[in-house]
Specification:
This protein is of the alpha/beta class. It contains seven helices and eight strands. It has an eight-stranded mixed beta sheet, with helices on both faces.
Length: about 270
C-alpha cells in the first residue's frame, strides 16, 4: 500500500527526524513520486545525525530494503530549509533508495544557522557540512566510501558543486539544480571530478541560465568535468513533472558515475 504524504505531514516527519523522534512506522511509510518510471517502494525512511564542526546535524536517511548497490548520495536543501523542501525531496529519495542507493537529506543549517545575506564563512561552513555528510555516508554498512555523491537544489546546489571542488571533499560526483553564481562568488580551490548542472524554465528569474553557465565555466577551470542539462519542461514553477525530470537526469548521472557498468536497472512498477 502506498501512503501519500501531505506537505504538512512531511514537514512534521522532517522536524521529528531532526528532533530524533521519528518512529519506525514513519520511517517505513513511503510517498509516491508519481513519475512514469517509478519502481516499487522497497525502502525505509528514518532519522540520522552526524557531526560537523562540533555541531550536531540531523536529517532523514533512506535505505533500500532490497539489495543495496553500494552507492550513496547526499541531497542538500535550498535556502528555504529542510522542513520546506522535504515534501519535494521525499518521494524521489524513496525512489533512489528503492533502486539500491543509500540517501541522506541533512539539515545543514544546523552546522551554521541561515542568515540573509549569507557570507563567505556561512558558505564555507555549509560546504564543510556537505563534506562531513559525504564522509558519514561512507561509514555505513553496504556503502562503498569511494562511491558517494552529493546533490543540491538552489543554495544547496552551489554548496554541493562549489564545495566538491575543494580538496577536502571526498564526493565522487556533484550535481547542482537551479544554481549559479547568483548564489555566491565561487571559490578558488581545484579538484577533478564529474559534475552536472541542471537548469530550466521553472528557475527563472531566481537563477538565470547565464549565471548557471558562468558557474559551469568556473568549475571547469577548477578541474571539474561539467555536464549542463537543460530541462525540457516549460512549467514556470517546480511542479511534480519538473521534479520527475530533474531526478530522471539525476539518476542517469549517478548511475553512470557511481555504479558498475554491469549493474542491471530495476524494472518500472507495472
Amino acid at each position: 500500500m502506498t501512503l501519500k504524504f501531505s506537505r504538512r505531514l512531511l514537514a512534521c516527519v522532517a522536524a521529528a527526524a531532526m528532533l530524533g523522534t521519528a518512529s519506525n512506522a514513519a520511517a517505513q511509510a513511503a510517498a509516491s513520486a508519481g513519475c512514469a518510471d517509478d519502481v516499487p517502494q522497497r525502502a525505509t525512511r528514518g532519522p540520522a545525525e552526524y557531526t560537523s564542526n562540533s555541531q550536531k546535524v540531523r536529517g532523514l536517511i533512506y535505505k533500500p530494503t532490497g539489495p543495496a548497490n553500494g552507492a550513496a548520495v547526499v541531497l542538500l536543501h535550498s535556502s528555504e530549509g529542510l522542513t520546506v523542501d522535504a515534501h519535494s525531496f521525499d518521494p524521489h529519495a524513496i525512489q533512489l533508495a528503492a533502486r539500491g542507493y543509500h540517501v541522506l537529506v541533512p539539515n545543514y543549517f544546523e552546522a551554521r544557522a541561515r542568515q540573509v545575506p549569507w557570507n563567505g564563512r556561512d558558505i564555507r561552513l555549509w560546504e564543510e557540512a556537505g563534506h562531513d555528510a559525504v564522509a558519514y555516508m561512507g561509514t555505513l554498512e553496504g556503502v562503498d566510501p569511494t562511491r558517494v555523491g552529493i546533490w543540491g537544489f538552489s543554495l544547496g546546489g552551489f554548496v554541493a558543486t562549489d564545495g566538491s571542488a575543494h580538496p577536502d571533499s571526498t564526493a565522487r560526483v556533484a550535481i547542482g539544480v537551479a544554481t549559479g553564481e547568483d548564489i555566491f562568488e565561487p571559490g578558488r580551490t581545484r579538484r577533478a571530478l564529474p559534475m552536472m548542472l541542471i537548469e530550466g524554465y521553472s528557475t527563472f528569474p531566481v537563477i538565470s541560465i547565464a549565471t548557471m553557465r558562468d558557474l559551469a565555466a568556473d568549475l571547469r577551470r577548477r578541474g571539474a568535468t561539467v555536464e549542463v542539462q537543460m530541462l525540457t519542461s516549460r512549467d514556470p514553477s517546480m511542479t511534480g513533472p519538473v521534479w520527475c525530470e530533474v531526478f530522471q537526469h539525476t539518476r542517469r548521472f549517478l548511475d553512470a558515475n557511481l555504479l558498475p557498468a554491469a549493474a542491471a536497472p530495476v524494472a518500472p512498477a507495472g
